[in-house]
Amino acid sequence: MAAIDEQIDERLGKRRAVDERVAASRACAIGKEPAGGTAVIESVDGGAAIRGEQGSGGTEGARPASSVVAVDRIPDPPFWGARVVEHVDLDELFPFINQTALFRGQWGFKQGDLDAKAYEALLDNEARPALARMQKQAKDDGDAFLQPKVVYGWYPCATEDDALVIYDPTDPGRELERFDFPRQKSGRQLSISDFFRSSASGERDVVGLTCVTMGPMASVRAKKLFDSNAYTEYLYTHGFGVECAEALAELWHKRMRAELGIGHDDSPKIRELFQQKYRGCRYSFGYPACPDMSDQEKMWRLLRPERIGCHLTENFQIDPEQSTSAIIVHHPSAGYFSV
């Protein structure tokens, strides 16, 4: 268990670093110095210690031949295009909450100098009862607090150089959008485009897209608590909403893997899914492998997340805050890496 916690902590550290970078970028865009408190963007608490790679250094040059081996068979999705899911059962969502991320990353229950026994006592006496209380409030309040919704879809695609080209499911020759991904300058020189069939192959691959939200009321409730100086309850409410959005992203990624027929590679333990112990990967804009936040606009044109109440700010953040979007890759070699 200690090894799992260490790997999750490593992911939390990377997540905080990315959040800080996005906050700095957003602040520069409006001519201000970055301040504390960033909007939530997608993060996956797992995988870096398993399949993560660094891509610093190196020099520019011709595009290298990909070291990624193509899959033998491209999975068949159950439908093409996008669908909306208006309701997700909270009882299905709550088991996917990453308690390490919630307790340590959001609520600040750090082990510090405590030994393992004392730290477990702290979690048992304070953190876990707070989580149980938040879950009960969410269920008792029904749609007044958490409103989990999803829009997701499957699209035919192929790559051209480092670009992933998305095609119209009803007209496979018509290009809908194009995502240009950066490539590592050293190491394996990876790009997300490596995990899909090239257009030169004459085949169409499949890519998944998803946007999930917990709705606006978690932020509304958190703001009321903050304005009334109930700072501890504000911290609990805000962090709970954030990690519920992450849990919904994790849950829905699992369902999408099942739809593609690759869910048999999933670990049976939810906790190990946070370490990316499954086939494929989900990437979100703003993270190292796909840093261009403006690509959110392309995803919005494809999925139309406004149907579940999600909108983009002028700096390409998602409103409501407790929301996240991602590109879903099925290739078994796909993982997190830095560029």
Please explain how this structure is put together.
With 339 residues, this protein is of the alpha+beta class. The protein has a single domain (40-329), classed as Cobalamin-dependent Methionine Synthase, domain 1 (Roll). It is 36% helix and 17% strand. The chain contains 9 helices and 9 strands. It has helices at 2-29, 48-51, 90-93, 99-106, 116-141, 217-227, 231-260, 270-273, 296-303, and strands spanning 81-85, 149-160, 163-168, 171-180, 205-213, 281-283, 311-312, 318-319, 323-329. Strands 1, 2, 3, 4, 5, 6 and 9 form a 7-stranded antiparallel β-sheet that branches. It has a two-stranded antiparallel ribbon with strand order 7-8. The longest helix is centred in the C-terminal third of the chain and has 30 residues, at 231-260. The protein is globular and about 60 Å long. The model is unreliable at 21-61 (pLDDT under 50).
Q: What is the succession of H and E elements? A: HHEHHHEEEEHHHEHEEE
CATH architecture: Roll
- Write the CATH homologous superfamily: Vitamin B12-dependent methionine synthase, activation domain
Q: What's the gyration radius in Å?
A: 20 Å
What percentage of amino acids are in beta strands? 15-25%
Task: Report the CATH C-level class.
Answer: Alpha Beta
Shape: globular
